């Protein structure tokens, strides 16, 4: 069995006319409430080869819920991009996938089979599907037949340590016509506890078991982790989530490391604030000023993480009621001689 050892170059998802060529091995993970149009645009600018939307409800699509339909707007995000849907029933997933193919700019549709949240699993969706490889096959084969663009699936290792069906599920995805499988190497029961890295060898089992590309995910903190994952498991590409929050540089630094072996420096706080401001501007375009200001609060704390004096700035941003207020808080922070922050 020969495993992938490539860090650079493109790879192809799917076959035929609608197959998708991805230019590099860096993937931005789907994150609910975060990977909307604003952040996907930024992640692309920072070198992600493939970006994946936050999970979007098949029921919301079925009922043409306005909020859900707004979440499907990715017009202007550079291709290729993938839109992730979730649901526990093959019929509604089929209808949702057909709707996404017809009405959005998605190049790939991804099905979420990893979400551990009870609100999702109690409806047989997300990681609940991992308990039954036959159901995984059923869902994937029905959805893949209903659309002409590639279908991918994001899974976890299993439901819990007594139900580790990762290999069976990956085979079911491939047999059902899935074009790619991505795996977060934790179980549903583990949620976000423990160390995903301890389970990376499972990704090697997947790359040995299926011919479709396998994307590895879980606790990649930077370029060196990413390289280690490829070396250890032969995955086609690496997927990063939390490491990119407030730090999309990690995507570009990883790409650069893969291409040259050189580690670029971490961004300065000035650079981070500059990108944070662009992030806020993009959220304003997406949601309007009020909602953008609220949504940006959690993002601001990621951008400010580790910066000297950040605690007070976070408090100020959390109380800000308009983007203009946030911009002037940042301005004051970066120009301490003028500001209220100079004494902190
Ligand atoms: C805030 C947050 C939201 C997430 N939302 C989703 C989601 O919508 N769909 C999904 O498949 N995974 C979701 N995940 C899981 C991530 O895609 C990823 O699998 C996980 O964070 C592990 O990767 P990391 O260690 O690189 O962060 C989410 C994770 C976080 C932290």
TrEMBL record:
Active site: 115
Listed CDD domains: DUS_like_FMN
Statement: the UniProt record of this protein carries the keyword tRNA processing: yes
Residues the record lists as binding FMN: 30-32, 84, 154, 184, 241-242
Pfam family, one: Dus
PROSITE patterns hit by this protein: UPF0034
PANTHER family tied to this protein: TRNA-DIHYDROURIDINE(47) SYNTHASE [NAD(P)(+)]-LIKE
The protein's name: tRNA-dihydrouridine synthase
Lineage: Bacteria, Bacillati, Bacillota, Bacilli, Lactobacillales
């Amino acid at each position: 069995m020969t495993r992938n050892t490539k860090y650079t170059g493109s790879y192809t998802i799917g076959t035929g006319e609608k197959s998708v060529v991805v230019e590099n091995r860096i993937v931005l993970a789907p994150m609910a409430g975060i990977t909307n149009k604003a952040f996907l645009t930024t992640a692309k600018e920072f070198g992600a080869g493939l970006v994946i939307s936050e999970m979007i409800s098949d029921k919301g699509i079925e009922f043409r819920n306005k909020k859900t339909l707004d979440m499907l707007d990715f017009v202007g995000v550079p291709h290729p991009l993938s839109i992730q849907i979730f649901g526990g029933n093959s019929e509604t997933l089929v209808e949702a996938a057909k709707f996404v193919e017809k009405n959005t700019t998605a190049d790939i549709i991804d099905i979420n089979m990893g979400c551990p949240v009870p609100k999702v699993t109690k409806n047989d969706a997300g990681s609940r599907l991992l308990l039954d490889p036959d159901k995984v096959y059923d869902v994937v084969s029905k959805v893949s037949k209903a659309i002409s663009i590639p279908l991918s699936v994001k899974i976890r290792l299993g439901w819990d340590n007594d139900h580790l069906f990762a290999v069976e599920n990956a085979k079911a995805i491939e047999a059902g016509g899935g074009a790619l499988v991505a795996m977060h190497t934790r179980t549903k029961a583990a949620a976000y506890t423990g160390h995903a890295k301890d389970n990376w060898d499972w990704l090697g089992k997947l790359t040995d078991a299926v011919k479709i590309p396998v994307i590895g995910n879980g606790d990649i903190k930077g370029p060196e982790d990413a390289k280690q994952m490829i070396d250890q498991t032969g995955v086609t590409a690496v997927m990063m989530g939390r490491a990119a929050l407030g730090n999309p540089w990690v995507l570009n630094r990883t790409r650069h490391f893969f291409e040259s072996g050189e580690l670029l420096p971490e961004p300065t706080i000035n650079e981070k604030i500059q990108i944070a401001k662009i992030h806020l501007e993009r959220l304003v375009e997406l949601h309007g000023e009020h909602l953008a200001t609220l949504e940006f609060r959690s993002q601001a704390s990621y951008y400010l993480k580790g910066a000297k004096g950040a605690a007070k700035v976070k408090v100020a941003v959390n109380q800000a009621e308009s983007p203009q207020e946030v911009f002037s808080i940042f301005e004051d922070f970066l120009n301490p001689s003028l500001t209220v922050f100079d004494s902190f």
